[in-house]
Design goal:
This protein is α+β, with helices and mostly antiparallel strands. Among the domains are: about 20-105 and about 380-410, no CATH class; about 415-685, 3-Layer(aba) Sandwich (Rossmann fold), CATH 3.40.50. It has an 8-stranded mixed sheet with strand order 34-35-37-36-38-39-40-41, sandwiched between helices. Strands 24, 25, 26, 27 and 28 form a 5-stranded antiparallel sheet that branches. Helix 6 crosses helix 7 and helix 8 runs antiparallel to helix 9.
Length: about 700
């Protein structure tokens, strides 16, 4: 299709964009298993199926069709894929033979509360997995009373209905005894993820056929990982599981498979997670983060396999590991155990690096205008990874051993991209008020004509220590959509953002609004100097910390004619008492609310609500337990009662991830509310 025949991207294209997730290279290096994500418009849901892509350049093939399949894991011999499916509501581990096409998946687990995070033993005879259970259920298991669902379908349905009724009754009324007691979009209960081991052979009977639980604590265990000798399982859990916010410090543990004996490998001074043993068994690599110090950078660290003094491999280079989108390691050992491959944030891109264990030397091996999200390493050193780019929101890539450049092996968005106009992303370097170099990007509107001026949609990222760049997958469609509707789109990384080193991240400590605001305005001023933005038609928006800054901006300047603040923090004091991460406030501002309420109020956008004269649209999810909706309710009330123009859009059933993974129809609705609000004040001629 020629460029003339292509159409602008629309809000409805949410239904047309596909994504690639969870690449996993087969033991022989010939195949990459991955999850292909699409949107089902009719059912208003996402569909996830597992595909196989050959690394020699052949065409990918689909191997599951249930629409609810994730977490592909190769058996050591490459003949079977374990995966997790919710095709029968509760997640369970399934096994699919892949040596011959057309094999049928069989369920391995039938855990009453579900099973996730499968991990093959080195000899392929067993799989470790996680399943949440409470103390009473663990006691029943120990007595042999917790049986699998009945084989009779009628009896199984009756048992399921009885369990659902008993579960509802058990939490009416709901007792709260810990902090946090909510997470995501739901309340936490008294169940904790425990590690189980189960044989994969068919035809076993009695105890040999049942899963065996290795752990027995009121603590959530993380992804299990086998040691190369098959004798131990590595994991992480809260160092103090009985305390509030137990995740603030977590330690690595080694669990003996034979008897469940648990040995602690790291202390409680940091948040340690995602352990990964080296192939030779000498080392354990993991992610390390100082206790709840959000301004610190995430480090790649190693310790001896028996435990010992940690050695940070990336700290001296001031290199920040990219946040993993999965609960397992997003770094890999080379086959000879001499180095680790990982992705890290750097000046707007997410690149792939190699660090040598012996001397700590670091080299970049995959770079450019892309954001590498997930990666896996083949046996000969080839790298499979998923990435987004300015011209494509998601694809799968393969960089063969010894190659200099990666190859794209999927085309999940080819049909869509062949039909639409994709606007180029331009970099803008500018200076903050103190001369600090800052980085931003802009998109020109579809149909742009030199000499004309256009309205601006200024976007502010969340975090606060997030990094945006030209390949930000979660914003790709939104920015292209705003450009298609006639807006110049601008976003930048003010001080406090990730990707520019520890000092840059820490530069908004105890001063979120004051220190970032001048950088944001400097970015807008630099863009205005280019002459294509109409200064009388500028809108501002952001989510989470970006919502905080949106409210802060319009409370401190009237240069914007419209604002859309989403899932924002507006009162640091009440956020502390209602969020599932209250320690964010004490870590970022060095005080508890009772110690300095006036200080926290001064640093809250709510304190300046009476100044807001910019028409303000608030968007918030009713089940957002990260930033509860009371934040939006307070800002709405204060702006309204002080004479401002404000509306609040509330989304039922949704949480903090509404814009990224909420119900598709809600995501479409959200974008429509935003663009209509922008158009009302930035393009009033459309309303006539």
């Amino acid at each position: 299709m020629s460029e003339i025949e292509k159409r602008p991207i629309s809000v409805e294209d949410i239904y047309n964009i596909a994504y690639v997730e969870e690449p996993s290279v087969s033991p022989d290096g010939r195949w990459i298993a991955y999850v292909h994500v699409t949107v089902d418009r009719t059912e208003n849901e996402y569909r996830r199926n597992i595909w196989l892509a050959p690394t020699d350049g052949g065409k990918p093939i689909q191997i599951t069709r249930g629409g609810k399949d994730t977490s592909p894991r190769w058996s050591p011999d490459g003949g079977t894929l374990a995966f997790v499916s919710t095709r029968n509501e509760k997640p369970q581990v399934y096994l699919l033979p892949v040596k011959e096409p057309g094999g049928e998946a069989r369920p391995l687990t039938s855990m009453p509360n579900g099973a996730t995070n499968p991990a093959w033993s080195p000899d392929g005879s067993r799989i470790a997995f996680l399943s949440p259970v409470n103390a009473e259920e663990r006691e029943k298991e120990d007595r042999g009373e917790e049986a699998a669902p009945p084989e009779d379908k009628f009896e199984a349905r009756q048992q399921k209905e009885r369990r659902a009724y008993e579960e509802e009754k058990r939490w009416d009324p709901r007792l709260v005894w810990r902090i946090p007691y909510r997470s995501g979009t739901s309340y936490l209960d008294d169940r904790y993820a425990q590690i189980y081991v189960m044989p994969v052979a068919e035809g076993l009977e009695g105890d040999e056929a049942r899963p065996r639980r290795l752990t027995d604590l009121d603590a959530d265990y993380a992804q299990p990982v086998w040691t190369p000798d098959g004798e131990y399982i590595l994991t992480a859990r809260a160092a103090e599981p009985d305390g509030d916010e137990p995740w603030r410090t977590s330690s690595l543990y080694r669990i003996r498979v034979a008897d469940g004996a648990e040995e602690r490998l790291t202390d409680d001074s940091h948040t340690d997670s995602t352990p990964l043993p080296s192939p030779d068994g000498r080392w354990i690599a993991y992610r390390r983060f100082p206790e709840a110090k959000y301004f610190e950078i995430l480090r790649l660290t190693i310790i001896p396999s028996e435990g010992g003094e940690p050695h940070d491999l990336t700290l001296e280079a001031d290199l920040e590991l990219a946040e993993s989108v999965r609960p397992w390691a997003n770094f890999k050992w080379t086959a000879d155990s001499s180095a680790l491959i990982f992705n890290a944030n750097s000046w707007g891109n997410v690149e792939v690096y190699r660090v040598t264990v012996a001397d700590g030397s670091i080299e970049t091996i995959i770079s450019g205008r892309m954001a590498v999200e997930e990666l896996d390493l083949g046996p000969q050193g080839g790298i499979a990874f998923t990435a987004s780019m300015p011209t494509n929101p998601s694809e799968l890539f393969w960089m063969p051993p010894e190659a200099d450049e990666p190859e794209q092996v999927s085309e999940v968005n080819k049909k869509f991209l062949d039909e639409v106009i994709v606007q180029e992303t331009h970099e803008l370097r500018f200076r903050g008020p103190d001369g600090l170099e800052l980085q931003g990007w802009y998109l020109l509107p579809v149909g742009y004509e030199e000499g004309k001026t256009y309205p601006l949609a200024f976007n502010i990222h969340g975090g606060p220590h997030v990094m945006w760049g030209p390949s930000a997958r979660t914003m790709w469609h939104e920015w292209q959509f705003h450009a298609a509707r006639g807006y110049v789109v601008f976003y930048c990384n003010p001080r406090g953002s990730g990707g520019y080193g520890r000092a840059f991240r820490d530069s908004i400590h105890a001063a979120w609004g004051e220190n970032a605001f001048p950088d944001l305005m400097a970015g807008v001023d630099a863009l205005l100097e280019k002459g294509f933005v109409d200064p009388e038609r500028m809108a501002v928006t952001g989510g989470s910390y970006g919502g905080f800054m949106t409210a802060w901006v319009v409370g401190h300047t009237d240069r914007f004619v419209a604002a859309v603040s989403q899932r924002g923090v507006y009162s640091l004091i009440s956020f502390y008492g209602t969020s599932d991460i209250p320690s964010l406030i004490s870590a970022e501002f060095d005080v508890e609310p009772w110690e300095a309420p006036e200080f926290l109020w001064k640093h809250s956008p709510l304190a300046y609500a009476h100044r807001i004269k910019t028409p303000l649209l608030l968007i918030h999810a009713e089940n957002d337990f990260r930033v509860p909706i009371e934040q939006a309710e307070q800002l709405f009330a204060l702006v309204r009662r002080s004479g401002g123009t404000v509306k609040l859009v509330r989304y039922p059933r949704e949480g903090h991830e509404l814009s990224r993974s909420g119900e598709p129809r809600h995501r479409v609705s959200r974008l429509n509310w935003m663009i209509e609000w922008f158009d009302t004040y930035c393009m009033p001629q459309k309303e006539e």
